[in-house]
Amino acid sequence: HWPFPDDKVLVGYAYIITHPGIPSLFWDHVFDWGEHHRNQIKALLRARRESGIPVDAPVKIQCADHDLYLAEIGSPPALRVALGPRHAGEPDRNYWSNGPAGNQFRVWVHKKEEKKEEKSKAVPSPPPAAAPSPKAQVAVSFTPITVDGQQLTPENIKGMNKNDLGKVCAKLEPVIQAAKDVMASK
Fold it and tell me: Is the whole model's pTM more than 0.85, yes or no?
């Protein structure tokens, strides 16, 4: 076999983790190559997870030269990735924020609209005078997941209608039951 050059391993992970598909990690790179590699890989995984890149996300290649690969992933673009020794230039800072970066790779993440709204709220609104009905406010908290290519977050679950929520539940119930069955057998 031909080993991947040690000094390019993180560049390889920057590509694998940010692009469509199901990324695979080599155990040794995460657990035996030290904290630096582990933290860089974790940062890349976090950027992918938080950006909601599905396995079939489109890729728009901006540049593919011998010293620079530059691509935007997702529709609308959620990640921007530059690989190679040549500087990729600065992206639109109104759209992109800095993500993970290292030797010959750099990732930018699309800025979330929610953050702009949070900053614009200088004074929190007072609580309602009357207690809300049980249906009015439901606390929803979980780590975002992807089901059939759609990222489910607490925010978009709250915004779904009953029909869409029923479909999500129908897809998740067999998975939850299977996990419970396996857990009970251990």
Answer: no
